[in-house]
Amino acid sequence: MNIPFLDNLRKRRVPDSGTALMSAQEEDPQGIAQLLSECELLRARAAAAGIGLDDSTASLEALDQMAPRWRDDPEEIPWLGNDAGLYLGTVIVRTVPGAVWQVWPDGRPVVRLASGREVDVVAAGQQWAADGAPELSRHYAEVAEG
User: Fold this and answer.
1) Cα–chain-centroid distance for residue 67?
2) Is the CB of residue 69 less than 8 Å from the CB of residue 44?
C-alpha cells in the first residue's frame, strides 16, 4: 500500500508518535483514514467466521453475532478491541455525514461528528471485545442519531 505521509515520517525523527500522527493527519487525512481502516486482525477473524467486512452497518450487526472465541486468549482481547474500535470508526466516518477522524495529542484516534462531539471508538471497541456490550451496531446507532 502506498501511503505518502509514511515516507515523510520515516525520513524525519519525531520524538512523540502522537505528534507525528497528528501531523500526518493534517498532511494526508485520506491516508490516515485508509491506515485506520485496515483492522487486519478483526478482518481475519471475521473472514474465518464467514463475515465480510464491507464498511456497512450490516457488517457491524454481523460482528455483534460472531462467537467471541478471542476471549479465550486474554492477549488477543486488546488487539481485537482496538481493531473493532477502528472498524466502528471507519463505518461511522464513511456513513455518517460530517464525521471525520481526529487524532488526539497522545496519538489516540477518535471520530469527530459534525456537531463537534468526539467519540472514542477505540474505547468502545475495547469494551465490546472484553464483554460484548454495548454492541458495535448499537453504538453506531447512538452516534448516527446525533
Assistant:
1) 20
2) no
